[in-house]
Each structure stands twice: as C-alpha cells, then as structure tokens.
Amino acid sequence: MKKLFYICLAFVLLLSFSCERKTDDLGPITDMGVTVRLLTDSTGVDDKSFNAAAWRGILEFYGDSWANQRQRGRAYDWVTATDQSMYIPNLRQATDEGYDLIVVNGFTWDGALTQVSNDNPDQKYLIVDVDWVEAQNVMQATYAENEGSYLVGVAAALKALEDGIENPRFGFIGGVPGAVITKFHVGYVQGILSVIPNAQMVDYYVNSWNEPGHAKIQAMTWYDSGVYAIFSAAGNSGNGTIAQAREYRAAGRNVWAIGVDSDQFEDGLYNATESAVLTSMIKRVESSVLYALNEVRNGTFAPKVIVFDLKADGVGFSDANPALSRDIVAALEVVKGQISSGEIVVAATLAEAMRLPGFPRNLRAIDD
Q: Residue 18 has what pLDDT?
C-alpha cells in the first residue's frame, strides 16, 4: 500500500513540475497570450528602416529588445521572402501554424494577402501602408508620410540657408513607384518649396527596395553635380545614399542624406560623433503593430483602416544630429504644430500637389 502511495505521489509531483511555466537560461518566459509572425520582403527584418520598425513594435509588446529577443521562436518570429513568389506560401505557412496575428509590411503584399485572407476568414492579419484590401479579417494601417516628409524638406532647406548655399539643389530617391512613396516624394518637395520657392529638384526611382548600390551611384552623381541633400524613401536601397553621403562628409564635402522610417543617425556616422544623416523622417510603424497586438490581446481586433498622422504622433522627424541647429529644430516644431492644427495642409498625392503654385511638373512620382 505504501509503495502504491509513493508511486502516486511521485506521479503528482512529476505532473506538477511539467505544468510549471517554462524557463530557460535567460529567465522566465513572459506569457502575453498572443503569438505573432512578421513577414518581410527580401530586405529582411534588419533593413534599418521599415521592417526594422515593425520588428521593434513586436519586441516592445513582449518586453524584449533587439539585443535580447528571449521569446523569439515561441511567442513571435519573422520570415523573409526571397522574392514575391514566396509571399503566398509564407502567408499560408504562417496561417497553418496558427499564429494569432500575422503582420505584412508594404503595398507589394496586397494581392497575396487578399487571396490568403479570403481563404482563411478566421485568421487575423495586419498590413501596413495599405487601405484597399477587401477582407473581413484584415486590419490596415496607413501613415501620413507626406506630413513627416514636409518637415524634413523644411529641415533640409533651412540647413542650406544656414550654410549659405547659393541656389541649393535637392534630390529624392524612391524605391518602387506607387501611391505610398509618392506621399514621401511630394511632401518633401512641398517642405523645401515652403522655404525656398525656386529651389531646384531632381528625382530618381531605383525600382527596387534592395539595391543600395544603384542608389549610391545616383547619389554620387548628384553630389558631384552640386546637389546639397538627398532624401531616400527606398527601403534598403536608400542605405546606399547614406553610404555615399558618409564617404563624402568624411572627405570634407558639405552634403547630406536624410533618413527614412527609423532614425538613421547612427547609420550615417563617419566618426565617433558626426553623422552624414542630417535628420530622418520617422514613420512609427511600431505604433500600428503595437496597436494591432493589443487589439488581439483585448479581444477587440476588427477589420478597419487606421491612419497614423502627425497629430497622432505616427510620423515625425529626428533631431539626433547636433548639426540640426536649435533654431532649425524650433522652426520645425512650429511647422509641426501648424500641420497638426490644420493651418498647413500638405498634399498627399501628385494630382493634389500639381495644383499648387510653383510645384514641379516633371516629377517621376505616380499616384497608382
């Protein structure tokens, strides 16, 4: 009888031990009650821009950090598509694996997501930069990139005046043409023209998110021809612009790059303290990811479009570079307030911008 008692006791203790919260060498695993997978394009999660911002939102939700991703592979993870042919397979795999939320970044995912989401009505999805997917299980997040880009355009123009540049020229490098990148493009141009109405503009589209070499060559050509500042909204391709600006500033050239999505100040460092990135148009993609994750956790997830504008702190500018003087930062804060209040209205499409007096007629931007 005693033998049977001890066998039963051992079994209960074993069962109790196996039901305890799992731990690993890094400590207890936080149970947020939500699992999520981020699906990226070929630029990956460490593009130092758009995808990286979404990944930061996931890390923040779970209380982890870039350096300490304790719960990756259990509560959250990411998968990169080598090319667009992998979009549907990656979506289907994540759906089949039962994640509570699947996040995709960028308008290139719209067709694949439309197909897979309609085939799986019980799965929850978030897509960033799209507001036209017709599905009853997709949350869509858009941003007022035109407003944030207006601010960095103002910053570049004010810096040119501060430096005494005569007839300054400004450049824009885009990734894949489309309505979203057009918001960056036309917002930036409007910001520059608000300060220097006769400023000269040049633009170029890489037609890829992952060709930094192409952007670097174009940036070198422009800088050599006298372009003062270049704003790139081109994913990983834009890092080529920063690389060229970094090389030239290290050599004593007075040229600037402007970062995008994340604060790219550190990417532009050419010595311990000085950066070739004057400022960055910060697009807080992490805000939409955090919003969707909290909606899933709270049981309030719904298929809706959410707009993150300047007033909602969805976009902004970086003042990390000391070269952006206090006077310029103060002026930008004034403009920021004017946009938030509606005193300044920034056109978001090429068609709208073309109706503005003095707006260039030769931009390569498109609205479709």
A: 34
